[in-house]
Design a protein that fits this description.
The chain is α+β, with helices and mostly antiparallel strands. Among the domains are: about 160 residues, 3-Layer(aba) Sandwich (Glutaredoxin), CATH 3.40.30; about 240 residues, no CATH class; about 90 residues, Glutaredoxin (3-Layer(aba) Sandwich), CATH 3.40.30.10. It is built from 27 helices and 22 strands. The strands form seven sheets. It has a six-stranded mixed sheet, with helices on both faces. The chain has a four-stranded mixed sheet with strand order 20-19-21-22, with helices on both faces. It starts with about 35 loop residues before the first strand and ends with a helix. Pfam families: Thioredox_DsbH (PF03190). Keywords: Developmental protein, Differentiation, Secreted, Spermatogenesis. This is Spermatogenesis-associated protein 20.
Amino acid sequence: MSHLSSPPKKHKGEHKGHNPPRGSERGSSSRDKDRSATVSSSVPMPAGGKGSRSSSTPQRVPNRLIHEKSPYLLQHAYNPVDWYPWGQEAFDKARKENKPIFLSVGYSTCHWCHMMEEESFQNEEIGRLLSEDFVSVKVDREERPDVDKVYMTFVQATSSGGGWPMNVWLTPNLQPFVGGTYFPPEDGLTRVGFRTVLLRIREQWKQNKNALLENSQRVTTALLARSEISMGDRQLPPSAATMNSRCFQQLDEGYDEEYGGFAEAPKFPTPVILSFLFSYWLSHRLTQDGSRAQQMALHTLKMMANGGIRDHVGQGFHRYSTDRQWHVPHFEKMLYDQAQLAVAYSQAFQISGDEFYSDVAKDILQYVTRSLSHRSGGFYSAEDADSPPERGMRPKEGAYYVWTANEVQQLLPEPVLGATEPLTSGQLFMKHYGLTEAGNISSSQDPKGELQGQNVLTVRYSLELTAARFGLDVEGVRTLLNTGLEKLFQARKHRPKPHLDSKMLAAWNGLMVSGYAVTGAVLGQDRLINYATNGAKFLKRHMFDVASGRLMRTCYTSSGGTVEHSNPPCWGFLEDYAFVVRGLLDLYEASQESAWLEWALRLQDTQDRLFWDSQGGGYFCSEAELGAGLPLRLKDDQDGAEPSANSVSAHNLLRLHGFTGHKDWMDKCVCLLTAFSERMRRVPVALPEMVRALSAQQQTLKQIVICGDRQAKDTKALVQCVHSIYIPNKVLILADGDPSSFLSRQLPFLSTLRRLEDQATAYVCENQACSMPITDPCELRKLLHP
């Protein structure tokens, strides 16, 4: 594993790692250059001896993790380690026995988490060290994002980066004093092994415990000051025009003209950046910069869709590309990527009218429906990158997704009639998708040699060029390629599948409700809106506690397919509320069913009660009680692989104000944006979704009101007209004429708007003034899209 000795550095705060080598997991770059363990204590640590790694197979005697529901914790249930889940039992033991806590954080589809589990946590000798000299605690970062964020802040502040697995040593009072990411089991030429680190820390705890405790307190105090986000003396947020311009310029400077995206390698989808660029284009569309923003976003989406980061055989997108060309991915598939990219491709279709983008959006949702959906309407978290090439073999990354030239030629041997040269379907397929006899994955991207001779499908030519190359018509080539993809898909079904993380998270389910609702609305497909509705029903039935009004963070799938919960339940975090509220608002606009809007308002009230910082402004990531004992209570300040929950909340507050007219939500939005002023001023590109919210707050929100019967054709025609246009800063309201309806009670002015000649009628309202009544969808389009 010497290829990991010096990966590029990871920028502080990057979410889920934005620059590991192929196969490394979400930015574990703090393991490079002897940084596998970073000791924040100034006390020198004595060297530990090097022992031989146990070659024993994993014990089949379970530890206490066997009683957990998390797929990640269950993966460690047979380690010879006395693991504890995060909780009071572990903390009490550490205090009673005066032992440091070893905290290990990961998630079930994490490649390097699997590696460390196999190399170290299955090792008998290392297991004894962890069990005898430490209180060892395992955490699924997706179950407890608050724990993950607090200690990742420490690791990033005291080392060259962060990522997963994250391994941190804590005092019995939960204050960190040593941190790192992946550790090899034994010492190497440039890195300290995990066994050595354990021996050193054990010795330091015995000999210099007071110095470690004092230093830990100093680091914690410094982190508290550094992580504070507050309004301070500021009364108003910064200028949206200035922040917009600076954010765009920073993105423009890092843009890859040839392949799209915003880094050399690795490259991440970052839908929040694409969303910002679309919004920037809309407000600057008559300028050169506006055209440039649109081109950057559309080109990036097209190159991603043609690249190997997209699963051309089974649909959906992989986590990231290990190269500049979007060619060789890290093969893990995450629900939150599918959700956000479905929206991004739908918006690209709204803006460009090019069905290429709408086809990609539909493909993403086809994958989610088939592979990540529970029968009751919920959505699973992820599919692993690793799987056995054949049954009984050791899992390898990408084995499920790659192809040899011989496999493709055997599956597609039919001659292609009418070609200018002898040609089989397999040869045509290989040419179009860039497959070669030797494989199209370079050795530099395959340091362990697992993908030798294999190919990742990537679209190398347009249909027109492929057709011209062989003298064929375009539609004929399209049919041949689609037939080929279907045959590969059927053949792939016989391969061992990657592990499915069947845990269901409220936050990611909320994002997926948005994905289906927005795409269904834009494309006018009720079937997709129905999937969004079923997702929302699942959230309300299985992840909402009626008595307390609170969301639950997680639920799980039993072996029989029924939905289970942990006991006690894992309650929701800020992102769960923010993403679910966004999903419900998107679902209301797509379906015009006001029950979803009513629930969104109730959840926003609960979010405000549990997370709002009444002194400094903005929302904390976790409840005060749930995070009791943690050294920090943070506010997430980065839009990364997922948007910051504060950024999403700013948008939600603006929309809720538009739906209800309640001034307190607008006031909260202004306070939130003011609290994050310094963060936006310093690095606006780290918060593109919040900069977008800032722009929306300082512009005028459109209230588009359709007066009509929800099921009537003329009403649907006006609604579909609105959905076909990219208008991010608006709320769409259906006024059915019932003065006792929920929205009529919220917005009394709706009762003054009338249908014209008993036809469905649209009004566009801004600043408490409404347009003349419009009954023709074409006239409405002209007004909304001049």
